[in-house]
Amino acid sequence: MVIQKGGINTPDLSAVLDMVVTGTVDFLLTVSSYTKPVEELLYAPKTDLLSNTAMNWQSAVDFNDIEEQRVFATSKDGTKIPISILMVKGTRLDGKNPTILYGYGGFGLSELPRMDIYLRSWFNRGGIYAVAHVRGGGEYGEPWHLAGMLLNKQNVIAACARFLIDHKYCSPATLGVFGASNGGITIGGLITQHPDIARAAAIFSGVLDVLRSELEANGEINTTEYGSVRNPEQFLAKYGYSPYHHVTGGVKYPAVLITAGENDHRVASWHGKKMAARLQAATSSGLPILLAVSTTAGHGFGTAFAERLKNEATLYTFFYDQLASDFAAKR
């Protein structure tokens, strides 16, 4: 690769995770992307060249057949929201593809490109995977974060879901949405505000009762992001997007899978338990509302490898059952 003026021409849709200076004053870049294992690339300033090394990570699967797209949805206020889309090359966009849309949107954390090997089984079944880079993250710096926190916290993932549907990547009958932790607000808000937009939703260790979250062990720390119920203006804002408080009886909600961990000290397990119970009592769709509670898991960190594998299997089995169980036969 040739270096363009003003910076290093790293691969498209990639992120530089780390950079160190070598003894020869070259730069070793740790680069991640959606379709390759992490690469260790060497940049030589004298030649303006970026070259491969023998230190690239290895993977048991390959994504050589996977196509990457970066598109933009338009939110109701006109802001362009990036969406990263992955699918098998040559996939027909006829509105029938089983599709998972992931969203987080909080604490200034960017959704960086990374190769998720567990998606291989989803792609093998014709599935599409999309990441919504919603406000509240850090993709466009601190202003992007500030535009999605406190009084500005808003649910713009709906625009991303509509984009996928309008452009025939999927339909409401073949769309699944997924979020974890802060993503519980994003996905929980989506299904309570737009219950007909997706067939299935998965929420892992998610914040769902935003009003009471301030009272849990980690709650006070999160008031800088969510605001405080002791502030009248912030209370009204929190109530306005709290998923639990907007579950309505008799509504046809999508199939929902909720997980919670009894040792989770970041998001207490009662979030998931309350939300699952409320949805089970309220929904009229006849679709399952499932709750899986682990007596050993925390908030992801330190979770045993065997349990992480079980969680991945549960997630994709749920989406495959709800979105793609007869997909092969129909195609």
Extract low-pLDDT stretches.
1-5
Fraction of helical residues: 10-25%
The general outline is globular
SSE run: EEEEEEEHEHHEHEHHEHEHH
Tell how many strands the DSSP assignment holds. 12
Strand arrangement in the largest pleated sheet: 5-6-8-7-9-10-11-12
- In the residues, how many domains can be counted? 2
Main sheet record:
8 strands, mixed
Q: What's the CATH topology label of the largest domain?
A: Rossmann fold
| Percentage of residues in DSSP E strands | 15-25%
| Cα Rg | 21 Å
Instruction: Just give the CATH class of the largest domain.
Output: Alpha Beta
Explain this structure.
The chain has 9 helices and 12 strands. The protein is an alpha/beta fold and 331 residues long. It has 2 domains: 58 residues, no CATH class; 265 residues, Alpha/Beta hydrolase fold, catalytic domain (Rossmann fold). The protein has an 8-stranded mixed sheet with strand order 5-6-8-7-9-10-11-12, with helices on both faces. The protein has a 4-stranded antiparallel sheet with strand order 1-2-3-4, with no helix packed on it. The protein is globular.
Short description:
The chain is of the alpha/beta class and 331 residues long. It contains nine helices and twelve strands. The protein has helices at residues 119-124, 142-146, 157-166, 183-193, 223-226, 232-241, 270-282, 305-323, 327-330; strands at residues 14-21, 27-33, 39-44, 49-51, 66-74, 80-88, 99-103, 128-132, 175-180, 200-204, 255-261, 289-294.
Considering the chains and any ligands shown, give keywords for the structure.
2 domains; alpha/beta; eight-stranded mixed sheet; Rossmann fold; 331 residues; four-stranded antiparallel sheet; 12 strands; disordered N terminus
